Amino acid sequence: xxxxxxxxxxxxxxxxxxxxxxxxxxxxxxxxxxxxxxxxxxxxxxxxxxxxxxxxxxxxxxxxxxxxxxxxxxxxxxxxxxxxxxxxxxxxxxxxxxxxxxxxxxxxxxxxxxxxxxxxxxxxxxxxxxxxxxxxxxxxxxxxxxxxxxxxxxxxxxxxxxxxxxxxxxxxxxxxxxxxxxxxxxxxxxxxxxxxxxxxxxxxxxxxxxxxxxxxxxxxxxxxxxxxxxxxxxxxxxxxxxxxxxxxxxxxxxxxxxxxxxxxxxxxxxxxxxxxxxxxxxxxxxxxxxxxxxxxxxxxxxxxxxxxxxxxxxxxxxxxxxxxxxxxxxxxxxxxxxxxxxxxxxxxxxxxxxxxxxxxxxxxxxxxxxxxxxxxxxxxxxxxxxxxxxxxxxxxxxxxxxxxxxxxxxxxxxxxxxxxxxxxxxxxxxxxxxxxxxxxxxxxxxxxxxxxxxxxxxxxxxxxxxxxxxxxxxxxxxxxxxxxxxxxxxx
Length: 491
Description:
It is built from eleven helices and 19 strands.
């Protein structure tokens, strides 16, 4: 780490003094520590219990017994996305994700057959799928998936390479994902090390796959889906089929931007947008209330609460989902943008005492190397959230912890559980960061941040330094480093 840049700040939340400080005013690339500002701002803006609803509205004709389980519907079915991250399966492993949940509820409502068009309306967000500075190499990976308002499974799918007697079979889950698999994965001996590599050019739907799978083995990787609105439409129809609904329909994307090319269309023929807005505001009268010129609400599915969503995003460091939370900060009703979300974020953190000169963010996830933050800003922000009686515990409990939940699951094995470490990691090429809270003997709580830039070849040394710092803080009051230091917790 001799040629790395390192910034550290640790302060006592009880005594309000500085314990360790090194280059605390230096602006550093924070990696996913940027999410602390996005998620914390979201909680401050909306509160821990805030939820948003995904809506299904319909226009057309239904037949079948009233209240029965054999309803046949012919017409338009519109999924109006909420923009909230789809984290059901992470909150409760084994549960259904958003699209499968909606399909299940449709079948429970009695729908047995659907003919017509399944529309995806993601207009709550403006069409800006990637953040500034995101690398082309990130695009095929699940962590670099494009942002949209549906966010089904984080706009990712599972690439599965299965060894068979004939070679290696490549499949996708869900199978409706519009990717074309090309390439060849070799079949190796039973003791061979598994490897699965892939790449996809920007704008392409061809996923080039290579690697090796040992005999009898299965290798899985998460990949980003292309054009997530269109993909969501195809996956929704597939989810309906899996739920037992007969589907004879096509998937299309509803656009308010006027793009009517390909599978996108502006509005539905003969029906003004106000009709859909009115349907969204009403209850759920059921299939028999729909008509060829009457739009009704069929289903409303609420998201998990904001504190649960934020906890999942922070603990597992979900990039696409963090970008969605940033856009939801934009007060506009539709067409929410990254830029207006960032402006709202800056207002919120400034009111909490963060010097905006210490903060220069261009995205909500920290995936961009253009983001710059000081450890002073991070500690100030974490301190302000901790002191908020409505948010402090919910935010802190949602951070990763050693041996348990999130990105710290396999770290800090030697740290005593009494230290109650809760932290947010941040990793990019040549960047490592760790910020959060730890408890020293006697119950003194410490807020800290360490960011390292310029790591050569590996972040292993930086992570080792982070673990040594936390171990020192957990043992009690360390010696303050020499040089000019901030006085108390920065304000």
